[in-house]
Amino acid sequence: MIQEMIEDELRRVGFLFDFRYLKSPELIEERIEASPDLLALDEEFREMYQQFLERTFYLFDGIVKYHSDVMHYLEDLQEGVYIESTIESVLVDEEGRQLLVEAVTLHGVILMLLEHRFSGTLREQLVIGYYRSRGPTDIPNFDAVCTLCRSSPPTQTSAIASVASIAQLLQGAPPPVPCSMLMLSRPEELLSNFTFPKHVIQTMIGQLLNDDLYRQVRHYPNPEHRSTALSAQASCLYILLFYAPHMLQNDHLAIRGIVDKFFRECWVISIFMGFTVDLSQSWDRFKAAKSALSPFLTPSAASELAQRHWSKVNILLSELGAFLSEGVLTQDYVLSNMASLLSCLRNCNVTLRWLLLHRTTASKKLRDAVVGNSATQSSNDDTLLSLLLDTAKLEFEVKRIYGDLLEGKQTRWEQCRTHAVDCIQELSEFFSGSKSLSKKVADENLQRWFQQMAVEVNSLDYLEAISAGRKIQQIIAALEEVEQFHQIEASLQTKQHLFETRAQLHEMVRTLNVQETTLATVSVVSDAAYAWGLINTFTERIHARIRGEPFTVLKLQCLFLKLRSILDIPLLRISQCNSLDLLSVTEYYSSELVVYVRAVLEIIPVSMFAILNDVIAAQTRRLRDLPGRLEKEHLRDYAQLEERFTLAKATHQVAVFTQGLLAMKLTFMGAIELDPRQLLEDGIRKQLMQQLAFALHSILVFTTGTSEELEEKLEELISRLLSQRRSMEYFQDYVHVHGLQLWQQEFTRVIDFNVEQECNIFLKRKVKGWDSASQKTAVPIPSFEGSDKGVSRSPNFMGQLVKKLISLTHPARSMYLAPMSGWFDADGRELVGLHTFSLLQSSLGPAGMAGIDRLLSFNAASSLQSALKLLSEQVDEAFATKLRHLESSLSPPSAIPDAGVSVYNELVAKVGNNQVWASWAETIAQIGQFQMLRNLIASHLRAASKVDAGLVSLGLEGLNAAVLADITNISESTENLQQQSFLHGEGMNKLLTDLSKQLQMCGLYSANCAIYITSTPPEFLSLLLFLVTLSRLPRYVLDRHLGTLTSKAKKSALDCFPLVVGFGTLLQQFHPSHMTLYVQYLGQYIQTYVEHSSLTTSSEKKTVELPAEVPTAAAWLLSLFKYVNLPQNLLDLCLPAPILDGIET
User: Fold this and answer.
1) Name one Pfam family in it (predicted).
2) Above 80 in pLDDT, residue 6?
């Protein structure tokens, strides 16, 4: 497949140009136009990739316009266009400072990512491709786009180099650094083509050095976390410094300050959406930067930093384990221990960030210092994964619990206040002496004091949190003082009430301390946008954990939610400005997240299908089918307890995997709903698709040309697919999916996809696999290399199968016998017959049979085009003159020509002696072969649909008849314009398309009536076909036992019936008058020979002996009438009853 892609691209090397094209475009275009092959490829390339070229050019143009807009805004600020606004005033404002820095930084990021994703040569080729497709029209901003896309430094390579680099990427080992790490040689040169005012850049750098741009330091009070707090700011500074490369080169003092503040402990940083840079590589060319970094980039310094972070991992895992223990994280615990929880989360995320980023450093020495040797790396990775999962779990629980506290804050506060008031009022009533048990302790002063205190507590206002907090503290102190009174101290009941009151007041204070800022801190600390791309390295380890414990997916859900923070970066500013692009951007990044989620969770269906394969083996090889009636003595033999225990164990394992995935809750990843049931179904579909595709591609490979091989392969395929269907049916109750429905849908999809790809051979505008309507992102259809074994080479299994059928039924090597509905060889052995089509029906089903039919249709259309092209090429001026003379001699066809039988001799001999016409006749015979195969397929589909889906078949027949009647009535009626518009509208087109597909699946069509091509018929079409027919007839003799024409030389001539069908198919592509004229010529030929025979027969003989030409021509004509639906009166005219009687006798 890779080699095929390379060859496909190398075909286009001749017209993929870089900017050297602009020096002499006329000469290059003349060279392309002078080569028919290059011209055809050029047109194909434009048709296939025009939209892609436009989109990429709009991308380049958008980058140029973005720089122009930012520059225009900065110039307007400098010129005072905006009242009371200057660059300095914008930078003083907090949000203005952020937006201006982000605007300039984003442009630098775009340029770097452009160089990272599109090489210079590729950019130039895309621009020139768009330029050539637009023609000689002016393209706005073309010069600026050329400046943007110019390769730097200029390369001397052509498109072959681009293709070679693609091949190396596809075939080689994985890169030494992640693909998300930017390894650019000279980024400052990229940015120098689109600069910004120097004083603006210098001012921004100064602001970043001296200010906390995003106010992140408040979320990280620990000084050790300062580099993490300023990481977003450091990313902006890294980009801006390339707009001022002189600082990196010569300003030692400033760069030393930058390194000390931002990069002292972090030399691998994330600059945007998971794209990272390694300062040890990126700044290596700059003297000042390298000097400032070098003390911190020694292996010993890196090892010391790594040890410091690795030493925290086990401690943090212990803390996380304590927090995540069952029943620990309650609302009261979170309220009381929020500080320690936040501290743990900060430490976990800072440690994770440093280790995840720096384990990807480009320097091998530094990487070894960070990750250790190969012996310790595996255990370190497992530990790091545990820390990541547990951290995500704790973040999820804290956010959930604290969110609930925040949402119910006022309700909780008011409930505590009410409870406290009730307790104080009960104390007031206790000291009033009104109750029987409190008469001896009545105290009017305490009664009034508690009553007044109840009023004070009840007057506390939730909205005035600060004053309410002070009052609560004063009330608590007063309650503690009053507890020292003798009357209260001696009463356990009153002391209990006072304790409960103080507890409720303390709870009110804690509730007031629940703030949104705390939740914001958790969100900031738990941000994992930097890990996008880095987390992929843990996928295999996550799979291993899920295999061992399926319920690990509960922690994975928390990890997925943690990674959702990647959406905040691109969506924040878009949502703030109410952009219309918010939905599309959200959907794109959400889909990227969902792709990762599917990749992680697909291990569950993979494991399930591994178990499923064992079940298939048990069911097909070891388990015996139970008979309907069983004798008691043989019950133990059929029990097979060990085998059934193995089957039950496998079923239990599948059920456990299903429960593990379904334990996930419904989650939104951005704009996409993540339903665990849908994930499970998609995973099962994906694995089922891979197994079906592999089975089809591995089994349907033919190495010999025998019919026995075809039947053996089909029987093997039936056995494999049947066992898969049984297993899906067996498991569907345990995995909560409709197994047979999934099987049928995916089987149909893989058939349709491979048929579509095989049809690309016949199409000028090919449908790429990724662009196919059958292809799905969640459940991709795998591609396999086309087999190069044996005689049936083809890109996929459908092509292999169809070519095998065509080879076995080739008219030169087989003979079709209508009574047997099959093809036989010269020795009488059946090659393809009813049994073969029954096997095809059982193995491939209606979808596969319809797919074969479609491929045969494309083969027929291609052969018809070739035949017509050759037909036109053979008629030169001299031959046309002779044909014109013959046409005049044979007119009118209803009369016998004056020259008699001699009128045919010259041109029939000319056609018969020309080998080109012999190969042309073989092409026509193959067209007939395709038609006959299509007819047999249709009859099998029709019979199967009537048996298996009788109601569907009858419904389609009725709908088809009704639609045809409506079309006929509307077409004949010119009064109702509304109905006329409906007839040509989208609704009718969709109805006809869907109906046609369903009719084909049920075999409710006739290949005999198919129109494959729409073109002007060549001149003398009927006469030429008539002459070719006469040149072929002497090779056949009428076999009265078989009732058909057979070849005289059994192993040399083409089978007659496919040839007749091919002639009929060719004539049916044009106006019926051509068919009628051809039949009339044959009838005239027969009657001419009958008359000639009667004239040459002696008068003494009582009967006329018909020459050999008459029975063969009549049999040919009768075979044609069997195939083509022609009126009976035409047959009676061409073959009068006396002639037919003479032939039959």
Assistant:
1) Strumpellin
2) no
| Among the listed residues 756, 740, 933, 694, the one whose alpha carbon sits nearest the alpha carbon of residue 836 | 933
- Give residue-wise pLDDT tens across range 287-300: 999 999 999 989 89
**How many whole angstroms separate alpha carbon 875 and alpha carbon 868?**
11
Q: Residue 875: what residue type?
A: V
How many distinct helices (H) and strands (E) make up the chain?
51, 9
Residue 162 predicted with pLDDT over 80: no
CA–CA dist 368, 376 (Å, integer): 11
- For residue 725, which amino acid is it? R
Q: In what order do the strands lie in the sheet containing 830-832?
A: 815-817, 822-824, 830-832
Tokens 């951007």 sit on residue: 585
Collapsing DSSP to helix, strand or coil, 1125 comes out as coil
pLDDT at res. 375: 59
C-beta of residue 660 within 8 angstroms of C-beta of residue 553:
yes
Mark 767-802 as b/e (b = at least 16 C-beta within 10 Å): bebeebebbeeebebebeebbeeeebebbbbbbbbb
CA separation for the pair 75, 91 (Å, rounded): 15
Q: In 10 A of CB 193, how many CB atoms?
A: 13
Q: How many residues does the chain have?
A: 1145
| Ordered DSSP codes for 164-200 | HHHHHHHHSPPPSS-TTB---S-HHHHHHTS---HHH
Considering only CA atoms, give the Rg of the chain. Answer: 42
Average pLDDT over residues 113-122: 88
Q: Answer for the pair 416, 511: CB distance below 8 angstroms, yes or no.
A: yes
- Give dist(CA 747, CA 196) in Å, integer: 58
N-terminal to C-terminal alpha carbon distance within the chain = 62
What are the contacts of 1138-1143 at 24+ separation with CB within 8 A? 1139/1086, 1139/1087, 1139/1090, 1139/1110, 1139/1114, 1140/1114, 1142/1090, 1142/1104, 1142/1106, 1142/1110, 1143/1106, 1143/1110, 1143/1111, 1143/1114, 1143/1115
Q: Which residues have CB under 8 Å from 1099's CB, separation 6+?
A: none
Distances (CA, A) of 736 to 362, 604, 667: 47, 14, 19
Predicted confidence at residue 666, as pLDDT, reads: 78
CA distances from 172 to 166, 169, 805 (A): 10, 6, 39
Give the type of residue at 811. Answer: P
Q: How far apart are CA 110 and CA 584, in angstroms?
A: 19
Judged by DSSP in three states, 941 sits in helix
Q: What is the DSSP string of 618-639?
A: IIIIIPPPPPSS--GGGHHHHH
Nearest-angstrom CA–CA distance, 35 and 140: 32
Q: What are the pLDDT digits (tens) for 961-995?
A: 998 888 888 776 656 656 666 666 777 888 888 88
Phi, psi dihedral angles at 669 (to 5 degrees): -100, 85
| Average pLDDT value for the chain | 84
Which backbone phi and psi does 679 adopt, to 5 degrees? -60, -45
Q: What is the pLDDT of residue 179?
A: 54
How far lies 342's CA from each of 289, 386, 530, 586, in Å? Answer: 35, 19, 20, 30
pLDDT at 160: 40
Highest mean pLDDT among 541-545, 547-551, 702-706, 768-772: 541-545
Lowest mean pLDDT segment, chosen from 618-622, 729-733, 752-756, 926-930: 618-622
**pLDDT winner (highest mean) among 720-734, 923-937, 974-988:** 923-937
Mean per-residue pLDDT for 944-950?
Answer: 89
Q: Which residues contact 142 (CB under 8 A, 6 or more apart)?
A: 131
Token pair listed for 178: 């992640």
Residue 122 pLDDT > 80, yes or no? yes
Quick one: pLDDT at residue 170? 34
| Contact criterion met (CB below 8 Å) for 760 and 767 | yes
pLDDT for the residue numbered 624:
66
